[in-house]
Amino acid sequence: MPTPPRPAPLPRASLTERRKAETQLEIARTAAALFAERGTAVTADDIARASGVALRTFYRYFRTKEEAVRPLLADGVRQWTDELAAAPAGPGAPPVREVLERSARRSLTPAGEPAAEALRWTRGLLRAMPDDPALRAVWHRVHHDAEEALVPLLARLTGAGGLEVRLAAAAANTAMRVAVEEWAAGDGAPDGPRGPGKLVVRCLRALTAGLPQLDGAHDRERRPAAR
Protein backbone atom coordinates (compact mmCIF):
# COMPACT_ATOMS: atom_id res chain seq x y z
CA MET A 1 0.00 0.00 0.00
CA PRO A 2 1.51 3.38 -0.95
CA THR A 3 2.47 5.73 1.84
CA PRO A 4 -0.02 8.63 2.11
CA PRO A 5 1.50 11.97 1.12
CA ARG A 6 2.34 14.45 3.84
CA PRO A 7 1.55 18.13 3.52
CA ALA A 8 4.34 20.51 2.52
CA PRO A 9 6.18 22.00 5.52
CA LEU A 10 5.04 25.46 6.64
CA PRO A 11 7.43 28.36 5.92
CA ARG A 12 9.80 29.04 8.81
CA ALA A 13 9.38 32.33 10.66
CA SER A 14 12.20 34.87 10.42
CA LEU A 15 14.71 35.25 13.26
CA THR A 16 13.10 38.57 14.26
CA GLU A 17 9.64 36.97 14.38
CA ARG A 18 10.93 34.04 16.43
CA ARG A 19 12.62 36.35 18.93
CA LYS A 20 9.46 38.43 19.24
CA ALA A 21 7.39 35.29 19.82
CA GLU A 22 9.86 34.04 22.45
CA THR A 23 9.74 37.39 24.27
CA GLN A 24 5.95 37.42 24.21
CA LEU A 25 5.82 33.88 25.56
CA GLU A 26 8.25 34.71 28.37
CA ILE A 27 6.13 37.72 29.35
CA ALA A 28 3.01 35.52 29.13
CA ARG A 29 4.52 32.97 31.50
CA THR A 30 5.39 35.69 33.99
CA ALA A 31 1.92 37.22 33.70
CA ALA A 32 0.25 33.85 34.20
CA ALA A 33 2.32 33.14 37.30
CA LEU A 34 1.39 36.53 38.76
CA PHE A 35 -2.31 36.17 37.97
CA ALA A 36 -2.30 32.68 39.49
CA GLU A 37 -0.67 34.06 42.66
CA ARG A 38 -2.41 37.42 43.07
CA GLY A 39 -5.57 37.32 40.96
CA THR A 40 -6.98 40.56 39.58
CA ALA A 41 -4.69 42.72 41.75
CA VAL A 42 -1.89 42.24 39.20
CA THR A 43 -1.04 45.33 37.13
CA ALA A 44 0.68 45.76 33.77
CA ASP A 45 3.57 47.43 35.60
CA ASP A 46 3.90 44.35 37.87
CA ILE A 47 4.14 42.09 34.83
CA ALA A 48 6.64 44.33 33.04
CA ARG A 49 8.93 44.63 36.08
CA ALA A 50 8.80 40.89 36.81
CA SER A 51 9.55 40.17 33.13
CA GLY A 52 12.52 42.54 33.09
CA VAL A 53 11.10 44.83 30.41
CA ALA A 54 10.03 48.47 30.41
CA LEU A 55 6.34 49.23 30.67
CA ARG A 56 6.56 50.88 27.26
CA THR A 57 7.94 47.60 25.84
CA PHE A 58 5.12 45.66 27.49
CA TYR A 59 2.53 47.85 25.78
CA ARG A 60 4.30 47.43 22.45
CA TYR A 61 3.49 43.73 22.69
CA PHE A 62 0.14 43.75 24.53
CA ARG A 63 -2.75 46.21 24.77
CA THR A 64 -3.84 45.14 28.27
CA LYS A 65 -2.53 43.12 31.21
CA GLU A 66 -5.04 40.36 30.42
CA GLU A 67 -3.86 40.10 26.80
CA ALA A 68 -0.40 39.27 28.12
CA VAL A 69 -1.44 35.69 28.96
CA ARG A 70 -2.72 34.92 25.49
CA PRO A 71 0.53 33.45 24.05
CA LEU A 72 0.68 30.95 26.90
CA LEU A 73 -2.95 29.90 26.51
CA ALA A 74 -2.56 29.60 22.74
CA ASP A 75 0.65 27.56 22.95
CA GLY A 76 -1.03 24.25 23.81
CA VAL A 77 -3.63 24.75 21.10
CA ARG A 78 -0.89 25.52 18.59
CA GLN A 79 0.90 22.26 19.41
CA TRP A 80 -2.35 20.43 18.67
CA THR A 81 -3.05 22.19 15.37
CA ASP A 82 0.58 21.85 14.25
CA GLU A 83 0.40 18.07 14.73
CA LEU A 84 -2.88 17.91 12.83
CA ALA A 85 -1.39 19.99 10.02
CA ALA A 86 1.46 17.47 9.71
CA ALA A 87 -0.81 14.37 9.77
CA PRO A 88 -1.09 12.40 6.51
CA ALA A 89 -4.39 12.32 4.63
CA GLY A 90 -5.68 9.96 1.97
CA PRO A 91 -6.09 6.21 1.51
CA GLY A 92 -4.06 4.27 4.06
CA ALA A 93 -3.92 7.13 6.57
CA PRO A 94 -5.14 6.45 10.13
CA PRO A 95 -8.78 7.24 10.95
CA VAL A 96 -9.24 10.95 11.65
CA ARG A 97 -10.81 10.24 15.05
CA GLU A 98 -7.63 8.39 16.09
CA VAL A 99 -5.41 11.21 14.84
CA LEU A 100 -7.54 13.81 16.62
CA GLU A 101 -7.50 11.96 19.95
CA ARG A 102 -3.78 11.21 19.83
CA SER A 103 -2.79 14.79 18.99
CA ALA A 104 -5.14 16.28 21.63
CA ARG A 105 -3.83 13.92 24.31
CA ARG A 106 -0.21 14.74 23.48
CA SER A 107 -0.80 18.49 23.53
CA LEU A 108 -2.34 18.28 27.02
CA THR A 109 0.06 15.72 28.51
CA PRO A 110 3.18 17.52 29.74
CA ALA A 111 6.41 16.06 28.39
CA GLY A 112 8.49 17.68 31.11
CA GLU A 113 8.43 20.06 34.06
CA PRO A 114 8.21 23.29 31.98
CA ALA A 115 5.07 22.00 30.26
CA ALA A 116 3.60 20.82 33.57
CA GLU A 117 4.30 24.23 35.08
CA ALA A 118 2.55 25.94 32.16
CA LEU A 119 -0.52 23.83 32.83
CA ARG A 120 -0.44 24.73 36.51
CA TRP A 121 -0.29 28.40 35.55
CA THR A 122 -3.26 27.83 33.27
CA ARG A 123 -5.12 26.31 36.23
CA GLY A 124 -4.41 29.44 38.26
CA LEU A 125 -5.61 31.65 35.40
CA LEU A 126 -8.85 29.72 35.03
CA ARG A 127 -9.50 30.01 38.75
CA ALA A 128 -8.95 33.78 38.56
CA MET A 129 -11.28 34.22 35.58
CA PRO A 130 -14.64 34.37 37.42
CA ASP A 131 -13.46 37.64 39.00
CA ASP A 132 -11.98 39.07 35.79
CA PRO A 133 -14.27 39.22 32.71
CA ALA A 134 -11.42 40.56 30.56
CA LEU A 135 -9.24 37.56 31.42
CA ARG A 136 -12.14 35.22 30.66
CA ALA A 137 -12.64 36.98 27.32
CA VAL A 138 -9.03 36.22 26.37
CA TRP A 139 -9.60 32.51 27.11
CA HIS A 140 -12.68 32.41 24.90
CA ARG A 141 -10.97 34.32 22.07
CA VAL A 142 -8.13 31.81 22.11
CA HIS A 143 -10.63 29.00 21.65
CA HIS A 144 -12.60 30.87 19.01
CA ASP A 145 -9.37 31.24 17.01
CA ALA A 146 -8.57 27.56 17.61
CA GLU A 147 -11.93 26.51 16.21
CA GLU A 148 -11.37 28.61 13.09
CA ALA A 149 -7.93 27.04 12.63
CA LEU A 150 -9.34 23.52 12.99
CA VAL A 151 -11.84 23.91 10.12
CA PRO A 152 -9.34 23.71 7.19
CA LEU A 153 -7.25 21.07 8.99
CA LEU A 154 -10.24 18.76 9.50
CA ALA A 155 -11.51 19.49 6.00
CA ARG A 156 -8.20 18.19 4.61
CA LEU A 157 -8.15 15.12 6.85
CA THR A 158 -11.80 14.11 6.43
CA GLY A 159 -12.64 15.32 2.94
CA ALA A 160 -15.79 16.84 4.45
CA GLY A 161 -16.91 20.42 4.12
CA GLY A 162 -19.56 22.91 5.09
CA LEU A 163 -21.69 22.04 8.10
CA GLU A 164 -20.01 18.67 8.73
CA VAL A 165 -16.52 20.06 9.12
CA ARG A 166 -17.67 23.05 11.17
CA LEU A 167 -19.46 20.72 13.58
CA ALA A 168 -16.35 18.57 13.87
CA ALA A 169 -14.17 21.60 14.57
CA ALA A 170 -16.62 22.98 17.15
CA ALA A 171 -16.89 19.61 18.91
CA ALA A 172 -13.11 19.08 18.98
CA ASN A 173 -12.40 22.58 20.24
CA THR A 174 -15.08 22.32 22.92
CA ALA A 175 -13.63 19.00 24.07
CA MET A 176 -10.23 20.64 24.49
CA ARG A 177 -11.64 23.62 26.40
CA VAL A 178 -13.89 21.59 28.70
CA ALA A 179 -11.12 19.11 29.49
CA VAL A 180 -8.77 21.87 30.65
CA GLU A 181 -11.51 23.67 32.60
CA GLU A 182 -12.60 20.44 34.32
CA TRP A 183 -9.03 19.59 35.27
CA ALA A 184 -8.35 23.14 36.48
CA ALA A 185 -11.36 23.00 38.82
CA GLY A 186 -9.84 20.05 40.69
CA ASP A 187 -6.46 19.25 42.20
CA GLY A 188 -5.24 16.42 39.96
CA ALA A 189 -1.67 16.36 38.67
CA PRO A 190 -1.17 17.56 35.07
CA ASP A 191 0.05 14.11 34.04
CA GLY A 192 -2.12 12.02 36.37
CA PRO A 193 -5.18 9.84 35.74
CA ARG A 194 -7.41 12.92 36.05
CA GLY A 195 -5.06 15.10 34.03
CA PRO A 196 -6.23 17.09 31.01
CA GLY A 197 -4.64 14.63 28.58
CA LYS A 198 -6.89 11.84 29.90
CA LEU A 199 -9.96 14.05 30.13
CA VAL A 200 -9.71 15.39 26.59
CA VAL A 201 -10.05 11.90 25.10
CA ARG A 202 -13.24 11.31 27.13
CA CYS A 203 -14.59 14.67 26.03
CA LEU A 204 -13.75 14.05 22.37
CA ARG A 205 -15.45 10.66 22.35
CA ALA A 206 -18.59 12.07 23.97
CA LEU A 207 -18.84 15.15 21.77
CA THR A 208 -17.90 13.58 18.42
CA ALA A 209 -19.86 10.32 18.75
CA GLY A 210 -22.41 11.50 16.18
CA LEU A 211 -19.84 12.57 13.58
CA PRO A 212 -19.19 9.57 11.30
CA GLN A 213 -16.84 11.58 9.07
CA LEU A 214 -14.18 11.17 11.77
CA ASP A 215 -14.26 7.37 11.65
CA GLY A 216 -12.32 6.96 8.42
CA ALA A 217 -9.48 8.60 6.61
CA HIS A 218 -10.10 11.12 3.84
CA ASP A 219 -11.69 8.92 1.16
CA ARG A 220 -14.72 10.38 -0.59
CA GLU A 221 -15.29 7.38 -2.86
CA ARG A 222 -15.89 5.02 0.07
CA ARG A 223 -18.20 7.41 1.95
CA PRO A 224 -21.92 7.07 1.03
CA ALA A 225 -23.43 10.11 -0.59
CA ALA A 226 -25.50 12.43 1.61
CA ARG A 227 -29.25 12.15 1.18
Automatic annotation (TrEMBL):
What does the UniProt keyword field contain?
Answer: DNA-binding, Transcription, Transcription regulation
Which Pfam families did the record assign? Answer: TetR_N
**According to the UniProt record, which residues make up the DNA-binding region?**
43-62
The segment(s) forming the HTH tetR-type domain are: 21-80
Q: Does the keyword Coiled coil apply?
A: no
Keyword Transcription regulation assigned to the entry: answer is yes
List the protein's name: TetR family transcriptional regulator
Species assigned in the record: Streptomyces mooreae
